[in-house]
């Protein structure tokens, strides 16, 4: 956990620093916004900014956005002035902390940002085999590929490997290759020099240099453009990187862990992923089974999440009833651990009485999980697929593909994520196809109001 404290509140921020360090954070100080920006560009990085409310927080937020630096801000001040707190939140701060700092409040904020509650919880033997292999290779510097369906916990396992490596006390830096536009991803990875492109107002250190001595997680690496894959391959092979606009190579010392929810061997055959890069990354493959294939983990995780969200919401910890356990173990959990976690979170909030009963195990729409039928979007998409596959003779593959994509999107009410999952393609591939169709004048179903945009991939 890396904390950057910005401001000059004498004595008060010193106390905050002491509390943060007692909770395992490494702390850097900057007196002003420009100095803070220099720290962030310089490769030290930060997981959280604690900023004096007297500074221009809106200006700081705008600077961070302009340089595509993503880090949460918590404002702090020497009074409980409600107007100052509201102004800070409106300016872009995530929270406001009054000073002098309360140790428990500082600790809670740090824990929330670090997300230390992402424990590796398992009981099933299928998962146990994966963990045993992870423990065996954790101490090496070998590159690791972690594969599995979305929501199985790939990032959690990556952090587990890092925490048991010789690099555990060094940075763990994560970057989601699918969440960053292609034209920015190279700069995010390798950094850039001042003036390298429009908006490059100063030199910025990329994730490779930021992770020096530690571990770099390349999440959803299958979504990386092939052109950039060649530069990544060179960085891994030669342990040097080239900043965008730079004139000389920069040595780096990192361990690479990559994740993917796609079959990369198929991606190689399709020409969307380099075979030589796959060989470099896939020294060890940790393949996480889907939750439905490790049934003993379902109740273990459910009990863990029940306690977690009871504590988080300040409600009594209720045991999970026998009927509720049967509902949980009989469900397919297409969304894996992430779906189970959300379901238990709902059950903790909805449960009444002394237990979490089956009537509290609900879908997001509020229906009982054991009584819910196929989701409407899935049902519509299935019907659309059946319609499109009729009368295929005499039509080109491109025409059939286009109609299948458009009809699936239509019956998913414009939800790109659902449509991509049903079609078995990545969200980026779907977006590229839709852009191609739109350029050809074909109308596209607009995104639904409730669509979940995947800007942060979770394991």
Could you describe the 3D structure shown?
This protein has 459 residues and is an alpha/beta fold. It is built from 19 helices and 12 strands. The chain has helices spanning 12-22, 33-41, 57-66, 82-91, 103-114, 125-137, 154-163, 182-190, 207-210, 226-238, 264-270, 275-281, 296-313, 322-330, 336-350, 376-388, 397-411, 416-423, 427-439, and strands at residues 2-6, 26-30, 48-52, 73-77, 95-98, 144-147, 172-176, 215-219, 240-241, 250-251, 255-260, 284-287. The protein has a 5-stranded parallel sheet with strand order 2-1-3-4-5, sandwiched between helices. It has a 5-stranded parallel sheet with strand order 7-8-11-6-12. Helix 16 runs antiparallel to helix 17, helix 17 packs across helix 18 (416-423) and helix 18 (416-423) packs across helix 19. The longest helix is centred in the middle third of the chain and has 18 residues, at 296-313.
Name the shape in a single word. globular
Q: Assembly type of the shown chains?
A: single chain
Mean pLDDT: 84
The class by helix and strand makeup works out as: alpha/beta
Number of strands: 12
Summarize the structure.
This protein is of the alpha/beta class. The chain has 19 helices and 12 strands. Helix 16 (376-388) packs antiparallel against helix 17 (397-411) and helix 18 crosses helix 19.
């Amino acid at each position: 956990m890396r904390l950057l404290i910005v401001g000059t509140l004498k004595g008060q921020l010193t106390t905050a620093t002491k509390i943060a360090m007692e909770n395992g954070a490494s702390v850097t100080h900057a007196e002003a916004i420009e100095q803070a920006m220099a720290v962030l560009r310089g490769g030290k990085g930060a997981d959280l900014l604690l900023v004096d409310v007297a500074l221009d927080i809106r200006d700081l937020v705008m600077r961070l956005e302009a340089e595509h630096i993503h880090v949460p801000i918590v404002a702090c001040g020497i009074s409980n002035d409600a107007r100052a707190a509201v102004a800070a939140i409106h300016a872009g701060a995530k929270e406001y902390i009054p000073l002098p700092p309360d140790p428990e409040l500082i600790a809670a904020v740090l824990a929330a940002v670090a997300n230390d509650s992402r424990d590796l919880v398992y009981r099933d033997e299928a998962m146990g085999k994966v963990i045993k292999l992870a423990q065996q290779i954790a101490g090496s510097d070998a590159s690791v590929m972690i594969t599995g369906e979305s929501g199985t916990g790939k990032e959690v396992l990556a952090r587990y490997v890092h925490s048991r490596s010789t690099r555990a006390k060094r940075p763990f830096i994560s970057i989601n290759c699918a969440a960053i536009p292609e034209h920015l991803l190279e700069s995010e990875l390798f950094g850039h020099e001042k003036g390298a492109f429009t908006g490059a107002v100063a030199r910025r250190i990329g994730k490779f240099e930021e992770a020096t001595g530690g571990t770099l997680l390349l999440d959803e690496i299958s979504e990386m453009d092939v052109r950039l894959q060649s530069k990544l391959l060179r960085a891994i092979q030669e342990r040097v990187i080239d900043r965008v606009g730079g004139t000389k190579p920069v040595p780096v010392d990192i361990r690479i862990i990559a994740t993917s929810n796609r079959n990369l061997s198929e991606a190689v055959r399709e020409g969307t992923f380099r075979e030589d890069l796959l060989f470099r990354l896939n020294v060890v493959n940790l393949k996480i089974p889907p939750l439905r294939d490790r049934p003993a983990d379902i109740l273990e995780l459910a009990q863990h999440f029940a306690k977690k969200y009871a504590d988080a919401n300040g409600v009594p910890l209720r045991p999970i009833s026998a009927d509720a356990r049967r509902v949980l173990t009989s469900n397919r959990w297409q969304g894996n651990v992430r779906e189970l976690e959300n379901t238990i979170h709902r059950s903790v909030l909805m449960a009444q009485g002394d237990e979490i009963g089956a009537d509290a195990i609900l879908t997001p729409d509020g229906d009982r999980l054991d009584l819910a039928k196929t989701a409407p979007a899935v049902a519509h998409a299935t019907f659309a697929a059946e319609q499109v596959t009729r009368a295929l003779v005499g039509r080109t593959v491109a025409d059939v593909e286009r109609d299948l994509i458009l009809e699936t999107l239509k019956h998913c009410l414009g939800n790109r994520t659902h449509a991509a999952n049903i079609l078995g393609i990545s969200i980026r591939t779907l977006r590229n196809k839709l852009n191609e169709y739109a350029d050809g004048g074909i109308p596209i179903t607009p995104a639904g109001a409730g669509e979940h945009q995947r800007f942060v991939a979770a394991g």
